[in-house]
UniProtKB/TrEMBL annotation:
GO molecular function, one term: glucan endo-1,3-beta-D-glucosidase activity
Primary localisation category: membrane
Keywords of this entry: Carbohydrate metabolism, Cell membrane, Cell wall, Cell wall biogenesis/degradation, Glycoprotein, Hydrolase, Membrane, Polysaccharide degradation, Secreted, Signal
Species whose genome carries this gene: marine sediment metagenome
UniProt-annotated location(s): Cell membrane; Secreted, Cell wall
GO biological process: cell wall organization; polysaccharide catabolic process
PROSITE patterns given in the database record: GLYCOSYL_HYDROL_F17
GO cellular component: cell surface; extracellular region; fungal-type cell wall; plasma membrane
Source taxonomy: unclassified sequences, metagenomes, ecological metagenomes
Protein name according to UniProt: Endo-1,3-beta-glucanase btgC
């Protein structure tokens, strides 16, 4: 609605957007990216509609307030997964040691608040977390990071790898299974969730990947069916267009 972060988001707007999201029967979770400027109200409103929440905190600015709001929301019973930052290593916004420290700090705050049962994670792109060879086998690049989180959040975008829409689902499934196998070599019980995937509706073709509404719709429905059939948990990026971050090359949305 014309806001640009860190503009305040009123709770009425949150309720309106959540009402739209819950019209879709396949939506069971939502993921947020910040816990200030009104966004900290999302988990409570989502809970009223029966949604589970992966509550994110933005740790590049106002870290203390973000963490305080996360902990308060967790104490109120509205947080199912705590998400620390977003693509911090990929964006060179943090080092792996600092990121692990932030994760551990958040976990300790949750423990102190009697919320030790809430899993803590951080999301990174597939290519940041895993090295995949020509045979499709993966190795973990930062095992110390994987060991520091309770559930692995990996962002996978076949579009950004230039995959044609005809093989996009195959590419997603390959990278997902590769990630699962690599993680389970370290810890066979650690869950792996696709924290972001999607297809742009407009913009420039990237190798064989063409952005368009038909391709977006095809990718969305193929991914939804595959995830349901294979018991794969994922977050589709994203629910609404955000004008403030429109890229002249790509426009992601969800229809």
């Amino acid at each position: 609605d014309g806001q640009v972060p860190p503009d305040y988001v009123p709770v009425e707007q949150v309720r309106q957007r959540l009402a739209i999201i819950t019209r879709k029967p396949h939506v069971q979770w939502i993921r947020t990216y910040s816990a200030t400027n009104g966004l900290e109200k999302i988990p409570e409103e989502a809970d009223k509609l029966g949604l589970q929440v992966a509550m994110g905190i933005w740790i590049r600015d106002n870290k203390k307030q973000e963490i305080d709001n996360l902990v308060a929301t967790a104490q109120a019973g509205y947080v199912d997964i705590a998400v620390v930052g977003n693509e911090e290593l990929y964006s060179n916004s943090s080092t792996v040691n600092q990121l692990i420290k932030d994760i551990n700090d958040v976990r300790q705050r949750l423990i102190d608040a009697n919320c030790a049962d809430i899993p803590v994670t951080t999301p990174e792109p597939f290519e940041t977390l895993f090295a995949m060879d020509a045979k499709g086998s993966c190795t973990v690049i930062y095992p110390q990071l994987i060991n520091s989180i309770d559930v692995v959040f990996v962002n996978i975008y076949p579009f950004h790898k230039g995959a044609h829409i005809n093989i996009a689902l195959q590419d997603l499934a390959l990278r997902y299974q590769c990630a699962v196998d690599a993680v389970h070599e370290l810890d066979p019980n650690k869950p792996v969730i696709i924290a972001e995937t999607g297809w742009p509706s407009d913009g420039l073709t990237k190798i064989d990947a063409e952005p368009s509404l038909p391709n977006l719709a095809r990718y969305f429905y193929e991914v939804a069916e595959w995830a349901a059939d294979n018991n794969v948990q994922l977050f589709y990026f994203e629910a609404f267009d955000e004008k403030w971050k429109e890229n002249p090359n790509y426009l992601f949305t969800l229809i």
